[in-house]
Structure formats: structure tokens, C-alpha cells
Write a structure and sequence with these properties.
homodimer, mainly alpha, three-stranded mixed beta sheet
């Protein structure tokens, strides 16, 4: 790499540099990484893929690793250590100070998807008896990362959270003012073990840019910042999309996932759904004699199952999303079912009418057939909408991800009930 | 409200106060709102529902309205004016200064879902020749809202963006240092007309907390902050969930939406899907003679259609989400189709084997029947996966929301092709 290219490289955004290195072959990538200026290399390292991180730890000297790790924040280091093999992790842990190692260990101990696992521990702590001048000095000498100094937290002698002071308050205040008088005490905080999705909901509800996190002992353990929450929301939504699309969720971008990994993510649901279709096949076989008499009945099976599937998917989707947004809670079950029932009744009226006349005029003005199909359609819609809204709530209640209870599963259940209703109604009305 | 309650009320978070007022009856709500301290009322107003905002504008005196509106930021005011009837909007616009009115007008002119429509115009602008002391004074006297001062932007005499200085750089620098020397010039910016989803992608890619927005003349028009982006992401994802669930997207929370509004959001797709089922019914009727000979063929229709629907939904979901995350672009179409084809082939192999033996052993060891079903299943999976991944890309290409091309639509297309394959293969193999 010549001088000009090198300068251009060092002036790029670390995220872009990491992206380029990820796509460069190993030897070149290590060489290019070594050319990065000191203040860039830790930043670039934190954005690089786990495979390339592993490679760098193996190829760089112990001193080089120590230099990077000292710059890397404890939470970035914990993220990286989770993703690499044990020997690489050990090599890194050996290179850092004992204090930092303890912090990283503690971060790794927090349950996955907890507030503790997304928080950063590099924060500025002030005490109530400081003056503004002391506080500004503390910030100046702390050297902590940019986004985390916007709000400074005030703690007591036992490091219990007293309140918060924003950077603009400090800038605007008299230098001799006591921090005590500037502290906002009415602040929203989380516990280290809180679910990160719940924390994310608080951020969007209250327009927060940072939230302090308290440990079991009531002490300030760290803060979660809004940019981390952004990533949490994107990840959680992607997970829901994938589960609702009938797949095992995956963190990897589509084009970077191998064919067999894609198959692994999808095959379980596909097989399951294929095998549950044995039930619908059995139901159809059971009523076979009915179909010998009126073969036309067959032609409407796809329509009924389709309408049921769609109606159920709609209800499941609004309820799953409503729960994810905090609009719907388990205790709202009665309200939700009652609303969905009324929605289903109105849909029945509208779709039923359209369907009745459609069948009537396209099937030799046979009003008993039109009636059978329409009644079956209405029964299917009612079942689909009530099951569709209840299953996600039930899943949440028993501690399963509500997204699991979406289209594929509900379709199967609705398919079966739709068929049973259809054939029973046909038998009854047609007197077979 | 007695004194104690009043104090408790005034000490609450404005978001919570707004929530309470939304659920209070009108007369009480206006009375309670009047009791709020001056610095709280604008904040609470910005979080209250449009209906209650309208009520307040109608019930409060002109002076009271002016007081609130002077405190309200221009972007919050634009949001509110978009949601209320014209006469209410006029009453508000009459109460504010001409300058603020012009800013609000300009914000309202930006296309919906553009960067301009989510940005805030209240920013601190510095010039390169200022000293740190001048800069801190400018911040101090600007009185702008908290989250927007973390990054200050440096502009030239024509208000063109030169770069940015962060608050912590200012705090840590010598008071006599020139801003010029502290300015980071390599910054990521957006244009007022950029799609807000694209801007959101940049925020999560580069871990940004604010991004400057440039107007057509190349001048700094405002900034987008990460808390606004958080809301954008939540809204866009919700929209995608609803569209993919076969519904018209809606901004309102589930329980606050009336039954008829819910029906309106859902009935179009339901009717459309019901009517397209005429096609599947026609296909089944066309091949009726086949089913007279081997009625067992009927029993597998739900399984084939189900497998096709699920497989197609999986492919559509990963592609739609991949595009939303910026992992997949239109130009990747060949790569995506090739990957999905290979995934489909592996799935065919696995599901085909399971299916073959399942049918063989449960249907009188009839290997021609098992073969017909298995071949049809494989053809369906292949079609489902390729159509499922291509349609969303095609939609994006012609400027339609890719989410529209999801489960319900793909299911219909896959259902039809699955049936045609099934019956054709049956005819061929069974020699009918």
C-alpha cells in the first residue's frame, strides 16, 4: 500500500475500514491492520467480523494485542470474547490488566439478552458534594468514550445512584455551583438482569438517550446508551420476522450465510408442517364418502383454508407486534379476544355476502351449496381470528416467544378446524 | 386536585403525565393541564394524543397557547399540525412568531418519510474562526434542547456544513483554542429528501448519535438525532410486520383502534385472497376426472399447498428483511436466486425422502403414489423458494414496498403452480 492509499485508508470511517478488511484475504488484512494508526485500530477491531478478529489475535504480537485491548471498551471486549474460541479468548485475557479482566468477566456473567449484557461500564461518576469545576475536571481526566459522557451520574459513597446531571447543564452552570443543586433525581433506571427488550421499550417510550443500570446491590453498574438500544431493536425485530416466517432466527446477514446453514434454519419448520399435514389428510379421508357425492365440495377447500390462514395470520401479527411494542399485555386477553371476535363478525358479514353471491352465480344458482360454503367460511374466520389472537398471548404467558405462534402453526390448527366445520356443515345442511 | 397530588403530578415524567391526561375525561384533562408548571406543559403537550391536543387548543386561551407553542420545538409542532383539523392548525399558527411559522411551514413541505420530515431545526451552529470560549458561550445562550447539543456543527458564511465538534472535545479543550483545529471534517450527512429508512440504516451501521441534514442549496438544514431514528425504525418495522401479515399498516396502538378501523385494515386482503382462490378452484375442477379415479390424491392437496406456502414465506421473509437491513440489494438478484435454488434442492432431498417413506408406508406401499406426491412436493418447493425470493426484489425494482410480496400473495401464486404440477405429474406418472 503506497503512502497516498495509506492516508486515504486512515482517514476512512472505522466501520468502512472493517468492512474492507473483512473482504480482504487473511495475509493482506493483517498487513493492512498493522498500518492503522493507534487510535483507529481498536475501533476498527471492534467492528471487524469474529473470524478476522480471531485471525488478528493469532497473528499479532502480544504487545500489539495489549495496545488494542487497552483501547477497547470492556463491553466490546466481552462481545468479542463470546464469539471466539477459548484459546484465542485466553490469549486476549492474558494481555489485559487484572482490573479490566474482572470487568469483562462480570459482563460475560450477565444472562444473554439482559440489560447487563448490553451496558457499557465506562461511565463518569460524580458525587453530590463536587462543584461544577470539579465535575468538569473529572470528565476531562476520565477519558471515557464519547457517547457515554452526555449524561453523568451522581453516586453516594456506596456508589448507589442519586441522580443525573447532563453535560449541557454543566456547561451552562456557574463553576462554583454544587453538583447537588443541579442533579435531576427523578430518573428512569434498569436492573442488570432486566430483559433488554423491556429496556428498549422504555427508551422509545420516554425518548431516552441513556439509562443507568443498577446491580443487585443497588449500585450503579453501568449505562445503556441509545445506540446500543438501536442495535437491540433491529436484532429483536429481525428475530421476530424470521420466527414468524417459520425459521430459526440467525444473526448472520443473508449473503454471508452458507446454503446448509440456511437449510438448517428452515428445515425443522418445513418438516414439522409437512408432517402435521397428515392430520388434514386424515380428516379429508374420513369424510371421503361426502366428496364422492358432491365432488364440487373439494374445489372450495383451498379457498376456506386460505381464508382461515390469512385471517389467523392477521390476528396473530397484530397481537405479536402489539406485545413487542408494549401496547398489549397478557392481562388484556379478554379485551383482545372480544375485539377480535367483533372484527371477525364484521368480516364474516362482508366476506360471507361476497362469497354467497359468488358461489351462487358461478355454481348453477345452487343456494344450498352457497349456504354451506358461506357458513363454513364464517365459522373458519371466527375460529381463525380467536385462535390467532389467543395463541401468542398464551405463549407469552407460559414464557415462550409469542412470535412462534404465528402463521405456520396457526395455519395448521385453523386448517384442521376449517375442514371439520366444512364437512360437518355440509353433512348437516345437505342432509347427507 | 389537592396540593400533594399536584406536586406528585408535576414531578412525574412528561410521558407519563401525557398518558394519564389521555385517559382522563376532557374537562378534567384541560383543568389538570392548566395546573402543570410552565416548563412542563410544552413537553407534555408534545406527547399527548392528537385528539387531546386538538381539545387543548380549542379550550385554552390564546395567551396560554402562545406560551406552549413558544416552548415547543418546530419539529414537534409540525408533527402536531399534520394531525389536527385545519382550523385548529390555523389557531396555533396564528399564535406563534412569523419566524417559527416559516420553519414549521418548511418542515411540513418535506415529503413524508424523508430525512427532512424527521429532523430538528434547533441546532447550535459554530464557525471555524470561533475560539472554544466563544463556542461555549454560543451553546450557553442558544438555549436549544438537550439532545441536540451533544454534537455542534461548524458552518461557513453561507451556512454550508464544514464539519462537527463534539461537546466532550469542547469541554476538554483549551478555552483559547480555535474551533477550526478541533473540527472533525470527515462526517456522514444526509440530504433533506433522503428516505428516512436509508438514514436509519446509516445510524445503525455507523453507530451514530446524530447526523446533519443538508438542503438542496448545500446548506445545513437541521439534524436527525438517534432517538428520532429509534422511532423511525420501530414504525417502519411495524409497518412491515403488518403488510407481511396481510394488512394495511396503521400507526395506532391495537387497543386504541376501533373494530371498524381494524376491519378496514384487513378486509381488502381477505377479500382479494378469497377471490383469487377462484383460480385454485378452477384448477381443481379442471382436473376433476383425475380425482374420480384416485380420490386419495385429494388428501395430499393441503400438504402440498401448505409446504409451498411455508417454503415461499421463508424465502420472502429473509429477502424482505435482508433488504430492510441493507444486506441485500436489487443487484444481488442472481446471487439470491442461485442461493435459494440450492437451498430448495437440499430441502427437496430431505423433505422428499421423509415424504416418500411416509406416503409409501401409510398408503399400502404404493410406490407410484409415493413418487407422484414426492415429485410434486419437490417441484412445489423449488417454485416456492424461487418465486418467494424474486418477487420482493422485483417489487423493490418497480418501486413497490417489498413487504407487499409476502406470505398471502406468494401463497396464492404457489398454490396455483403447486396444483398444476401435482395434477400434471399425476397424469404423467400414473398414465391417466
Amino acid at each position: 500500500m503506497d503512502k497516498e492509499k495509506f492516508d486515504a485508508f486512515n482517514n476512512m470511517n472505522p466501520v468502512d475500514i472493517a468492512e474492507i478488511l473483512d473482504e480482504t484475504d487473511d495475509e493482506q488484512a493483517v498487513r493492512a491492520f498493522r498500518l492503522l494508526s493507534n487510535d483507529l485500530s481498536a475501533d476498527v477491531f471492534s467492528y471487524i467480523s469474529p473470524e478476522k478478529q480471531k485471525l488478528l489475535v493469532e497473528e499479532l504480537t502480544a504487545t500489539e494485542i495489549t495496545d488494542i485491548m487497552e483501547e477497547l471498551s470492556a463491553d466490546d471486549m466481552a462481545d468479542f470474547i463470546e464469539d471466539v474460541p477459548d484459546d484465542v479468548a485466553q490469549r486476549v485475557l492474558d494481555s489485559i490488566s487484572m482490573e479490566k479482566g474482572t470487568t469483562v468477566d462480570r459482563l460475560l456473567d450477565y444472562p444473554e439478552d439482559s440489560a447487563g449484557s448490553v451496558m457499557t461500564t465506562e461511565i463518569v461518576e460524580l458525587t453530590a458534594d463536587m462543584t461544577v469545576k470539579d465535575a468538569l475536571n473529572t470528565i476531562r481526566t476520565s477519558g471515557v468514550d464519547k457517547e457515554t459522557i452526555y449524561t453523568c451520574y451522581v453516586v453516594d459513597a456506596e456508589r448507589r445512584l442519586m441522580g443525573a446531571v447532563t453535560a449541557d447543564t454543566l456547561v451552562q452552570a456557574d463553576l462554583h455551583e454544587k453538583i447537588n443543586n443541579l442533579t435531576e433525581t427523578n430518573i428512569i433506571s434498569a436492573h442488570t438482569t432486566d430483559d433488554r427488550e423491556e429496556v428498549a421499550l422504555q427508551f422509545s417510550k420516554y425518548d431516552l438517550i441513556a439509562m443507568p443500570v443498577i446491580n443487585r446491590g443497588g449500585q450503579l453498574a453501568g449505562i445503556v446508551t441509545v445506540d446500543d438500544i438501536l442495535r437491540v431493536i433491529v436484532e429483536e425485530d429481525t428475530e421476530d420476522f424470521e420466527i414468524m416466517g417459520g425459521m430459526r432466527p440467525s444473526d448472520e446477514p443473508y449473503l454471508k450465510t452458507g446454503v446448509f446453514q440456511h437449510v438448517k434454519n428452515r428445515i425443522v419448520w418445513l418438516t414439522l408442517m409437512m408432517l402435521t399435514a397428515i392430520i388434514t389428510a386424515t380428516i379429508i379421508s374420513t369424510f371421503e364418502e361426502l366428496l364422492y357425492v358432491i365432488p364440487t365440495l373439494y374445489a372450495f377447500i383451498p379457498m376456506l383454508m386460505g381464508a382461515g390462514g390469512n385471517a389467523g395470520a392477521q390476528s396473530a401479527t397484530v397481537v405479536i407486534r402489539g406485545m413487542a411494542l408494549g401496547d398489549i399485555a397478557i392481562k388484556d386477553v379478554a379485551k383482545v379476544v372480544w375485539r377480535e371476535t367483533r372484527i371477525a363478525l364484521v368480516c364474516c358479514l362482508a366476506l360471507g355476502l361476497v362469497n354467497f353471491f359468488r358461489v351462487f352465480f358461478t355454481h348453477g344458482r345452487d343456494y344450498t351449496l352457497a349456504l354451506v360454503i358461506t357458513l363454513s367460511l364464517c365459522a373458519t374466520l371466527l375460529v381463525a381470528k380467536t385462535i390467532g389472537c389467543m395463541l401468542p398471548l398464551f405463549a407469552k404467558k407460559i414464557g415462550v416467544d409469542p412470535a412462534v405462534m404465528s402463521a405456520p402453526l396457526i395455519t395448521t390448527i385453523v386448517d384442521c378446524t376449517a375442514l371439520i366445520f366444512y364437512f360437518s356443515i355440509a353433512r348437516l345442511v345437505l342432509g347427507l
